[in-house]
Structures are given as structure tokens and as C-alpha cells.
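ugh ok so i messed up the first submission bc i forgot one of the chains. this is the corrected input, ALL of the components this time, i swear. 792 residues overall. if the numbers dont match what u have on ur side tell me asap before i send this to the collaborators (the ones from the other lab, u know who)
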Amino acid sequence: MSGLLLKGGRVVDPVSGIDGTRDVLIDGGLIKAVGIDLPVGSAQVVDVAGLLVTPGLIDMHVHLREPGHEHKETIATGAASAVAGGFTAVACMPNTDPVNDQASITQFMLKRAAEAGLARVYPIGAVTLGSKGEALAEIADLKAAGCVAISDDGKPVLTALLMRRALEYTAMCGMPVIDHCEDPTLKGDGVAHEGFNASRLGLKGIPGEAEELWIERDITLAGLTGGRFHVAHLSTRGSLRAVRVGKARGINVTCEVAPHHFILTDDALEGYDTNVKMNPPLREASDRDELVRGLVDGSVDVIATDHAPHHADEKRVEFDRAPFGIVGLETCVPLTFDRLVHTGLITLTRFVELLSVNPARILGVTGGALTPGAPADVSILAPDLSATIDASRLVSKSKNTPFGGWTLKGGVAATIVAGRVVYTNPDVPRARAFTPVSVA
Amino acid sequence: MIEAPSPSPTSTSGQLAQASAPQGTPASSPAPVSGPPPQASAQGAPGLRVRHLLGIEELSPEEIVLILDTAEAMKEVGSRTVKKVPALRGRTVVNLFFEPSTRTRTSFEIAEKRLSADTLSIAVATSSVTKGETLVDTALNLEAMSPDMIVMRHASSGAAHLLSQICRARIINAGDGMHEHPTQALLDAFTIRRHKQRIAGLKVAIIGDLLHSRVFRSNVHLLRKLGADVWVSAPRTLIPPGIERLGVTATTRVEDAIADADVVMMLRIQMERMQGHFFPSLREYFTLYGLTKERLALARPDAIVMHPGPMNRGVEIASDVADGPASVILEQVSNGVAVRMAVLYLLAGGLD
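and heres the new structure output, hopefully the right one now
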């Protein structure tokens, strides 16, 4: 027997314009054919009627913590979390210890990812050595080693001059610069969105303008250089306005939004749960609502989780002492289905654009389409699965999510990377027909 | 939990045991109470609905009035020759201070001793926190020794909430970061009520570093719940964004806040928090916002001047005002003991 035939699923592949019942034939790690009533031949047939078959989802903003912070996550546990969340690929930020600012570290990450054999892992290199904002890292070398973008994420690219040079230099290498946009002096030692809730709770504020100011700077520099600027975890309506204006001016700017920013607001700060502490912070309802509009109208390019695992001990402290960030890989698909798809806000086509087509295009990596001959990275989703998020059962090494206990409609049935079934969800009956690969 | 006698005064000997409790006293008439505090049964009635005193925001107006009325009775205890009642006999109260404090810690200690509690105070310099222990571990270790109540001062907003999620002991927030300092607001209200016989309808001006002040936040909640007209004033840099939503009038013109005020409450300028370029100099701050005789003259003739301490003379308040006839600053300190006795007593009422 050779190959795998996904029979009768709803295939959503925006690049080829397909949204309808199709069969997908996978063989030799590649997509062989997409069509109606494909001949079975010698393939194993899995009936996926009622399920959604999409190009593999790609999370272009995660923190896998290895090397250096393996108590939070490793590349292997992060990759396992990714495929459990329906992602066939992730791009991991360089703020490890040491920082991914040289080819040897990129190679180490790729080696670990290959050993894990689950999701594809695309390292993002540092813009500056040690992400210190002083001197450029060897960007071309990072690219040659396998980096798909550069960023000093966790921090902004500190000076306008360095950002200018990074944009110019990466334009030559064909990579985007992803900036964590935040004016560090305006952020100060803020821990929450500056506004009524922070005022009332006595938490130091981070104004939305700290982000907007920086995005305006970077868009201006992208205009100067012709380089490609991607905004990490955009969180305010003013930031989105800046991106819309930049796009209208023909500047090469794209942006991503995290599920927590299009769902939660700073009202969640009540009670000081450190699992609602992230950077950028949860903003106001008017920001959240505008981000949703941006997801609907296409001015937001990507949904990315900013998956930021932290050990429970690190989060079980005073609010101002807790690290920023939450895990996101395994909650993204349910949250996006429940809040955007089932509410009728976005179509399935848009869903796939946000989570697969656009991240693949921005990073210049494989995937984003079910094109015959392309590697068979396929997500099989269960739009009608209703499940309650249990933080303790997350595959990620860390459990820091504010969404524990949320019952959401929409989930993952199975994940296929390069033709290998790397995850099946036991809660989805049809997914039991898959023969998952055994992973050491 | 440890077995302990009911804190009801009727179950113990002592002067408080005889009289009946003045329960349900209306808000506006704090008729001086010479009798004992309201009786709190082992089941917690009729005392506080809250298990902990984390902030004023969680209290109902009725609970606030209950505390203030109970404090009247406690005040009387403090005027006796033998300033001790057995209400908390056999109870263990830990004072856990992660920030330096003389006034508040001393006030709590005296209050606890006057209620016959067994108390100990832990200051940060002598605690294991300096050895890298987390607040959670410190709390779990304390909890293992079964204290009935923990009074905590901490530099982080929300620290008292965290403690209350870990400990079975009743938590009294003695100041958490920039968030709340509920017993300070209660003693301020108690002091105002003794002078003005009411809170409702009074114009109260709160002036100073609003941004970093937990005293300000607790006072705003309390004064609004009891119906005062609250004006706040500070340089624009020290007014927390969106604060009008708490029902206060915020102005940078200090004269507008003081005009016809019944109460002028000055807040301390916290020198240690001034790295943020909030104003150019202490000199300019005093020129614009310092409470001088001239500015005080804008208030009602019978206005009182308050300050939670510690004062920076010549920064937020002129010495002649601090020591002048309108000042009730030292009275606030002495009322602090009675109010904290009331809080301890009422929270103990729910202990089993």
C-alpha cells in the first residue's frame, strides 16, 4: 500500500481557489492530487467527511526557549505542542540563551527540530549581536544556515540607524525584519495597558502609543529603504491605522495579531492573574474591536500566537514580578474558530490566509497551498468539535494560559507534515483512522 | 485550623463583656459609642461579608460603616487606663512587612496587643525573602504554622490578592504597591466623621502624587461609596489616566480642588518614585501644589487638613499648616489604632 487518500473532506485552499468537497492524495511526502472522487489505487483511505482539509498552518511567532531555558520549553516539546495545535510549521524567535545571532546556534536549533521530527521549525535570527542593539549580526550567514527572518523580539531594534541598515541588508538577502515595536522609554517599567484598569489596580502602564510611535518609525524606514518590515504582535487600533496607511502608500509592511489581543481586553486584569500579563499588554475594547475589523478586512495579514511558555513557578509571583507572555500554540485554532469563524466574522478562506497562506508568503517558506508536487503539509481541522481547554493537559511544557476552562467550538483532528501523520486528536472519532508515525 | 474560643466578647471576661452591641448604626450619625463593638459570632454574622480586607473597592457602604462604628467602641478602649480587651485572646496575628513602615506596623501591633492577640512582626530585612524565597513560599511556610490572620505590606500591587489565594488565614492588606491601603482610608474616614459628623456631601480635596498612591485609591473608593464629592489635583504627569471613571473630579488647578473644601488631604511626594521626570524640581512642585496658608484659606473656614504620613515638610505641605489649627494629622495616627482594632476584630468574627 502506498500513499494516503484523505477522502471527502472540505478542502479550503485559497491559492488554488478551492473551497469544497475534495479528495487529497498524498504520497512520497508530497501532495499528489487534489480532486473530486480521486481513484483510490493502493492508498490508505481515511474518510475525513465533516472535517476541514487545509494547507498546513504556520505560526510565525513562537518562543521555543531552547537553548537556555529548557525548563520552560524545548524545541521538541514546542514542536509537539505545535502539531497538537494544528500547526505544521513554526518560526521561533531568537531570544534564547545564547541568542540566535550566529549560524552555529541556528544549526543547533534545526538539528533539534529534525530530531523531534514533528513540526517544521524555522529559526528567526537576531538583528543585532546578542539582540543588544549595538552591532548587526551576520545576517547573510544566518540566512544561509536556515533563518527565515530576523528580529530582536522581546526588544525593539534599538536605534533607527540599525533598523535602517537591517532593512537594507535583508532586502538584499530576501528576508523580512520583524520588529517588536515598543518605545522602551515610554514603556518604562510598565506591566499593563495604560488606562483605567491599570490606574484602578495600581499597575504601571504601557501606553498604546509606545507601540504606535515605533511602528511609525519602522514604516518610515521601510519607505526609505524598500525593505520588508513585519510588525510582531500588533495590539492597538492606532498601530493598525499606521499599517493601513503604510500599505496604502505602497510600503512593504505586514503585520500579525495574536489571539489574546483580538479576544481579551484589559478588563481581564481584575484579580491580578499573571496569565493575563503579556507584552504588548491586553488593550481596550476599542483596540480589540479594531483588530477584529483588521482581521476581517485583510489589513491584518497573519494570526500568530507569540507562544511564550513560562514555568508555573515563574508565573506564581506578584504581578509586577512575573514574566510577560502566555502559551498559544494549542489554543489558537479553537479560539479563532470560536471567535472569528463561527461568529461569521471571517470565512474559512480568510482563516487559511491568516494562518497559512500569508505566513508562508511573508517568510518565503514552503506551504500555504495544497499544490500537487509540494510537500504534504496538511492540517485537518474539526470545526464542530466542542472542547474545554484544560491547561494541565496542554502538550507544551508550560501551562501558562488564561484560557483554561474556556469551552470553544472548533479544533484539530490531525496534523500531517511532509506526508507523515504527526498528530491525531483522540477526541475526534474520524481521526482514529489515521496511523500516526511513531515518534521517538 | 486551630481551635480557638469564639472572639465574641461575651465569651470572655473583661470590661467589654457586659454591654450589648450597637448593631446596624446608620451611616450618617456616628453617635459616639461607649459600649463594646458589635458582637461577631463564630459564624461571621453580622460582621463583614468579605473574608479578607484586600481593598476598599470590595467593601459595601454598610461594611464600611460597620467598621467605622466598631472603631468608635475601640477608640473608647484606647482611652482606658487598662487598654486591653480579650477579644482576640489565643489568636495568632502575623505582621508581614516587605516594605519599611514605622507608623502602620506599629499601629497594627498596638491594635493587636490591645485585642490580646499573639502577634509577631516580620520585616523584610530579617526574612528569608532576601535569600531568594518567593512570596508564595514565604506564605506557605507561614501558613504551615497556622496563623489566624496575616497583615501584609508589600511593594507589588495585587500581592495581598495573591496571598489570599494561598492562605487560609484572613489577610489584611496594609498596603500593596500602588493599589490600596484600606485601613488608611478607613482611619481617614473615621477622622473625618468625628470632625464633620458625616461623609456624604462633603467636598474632599486629595492633592499630590495620585499616580503612585495607594492611599489615594483607597480613599477615592471609600469616599465615593459614602457619598462625598471628591476632587483630586496633581500635575498632569501624576494623574492616573481614566481616573474620572472612579467618580472624582480631576484638575491640575489645585486652587479649584481646595475651594470650599471641607477636607484637604495631602499626599506624600514619594522621592524614590521620581525617576520618571514627573516634575522638574521639589521647589517647583511646592510652588504649584504645596499646601500653604494662602491656599488653605480658599477652603471652608472649618476645613480640616489631613496627611497619611510620613510628611515631607516644605514639599507637599508647609510646616505652619502641618502644625496649624486645621491639622488633624496626629489625630489620624491615633485613630489608626482604633480602626485597625475594629478591622481585626470584625474579620476574626468569621474565624472558626
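quick check: The interface with chain B takes residues 188, 194-196, 198-205, 271-272, 313, 316-321 of chain A (CB under 8 Å). that seems consistent at least. The longest strand of chain A covers residues 378-388.
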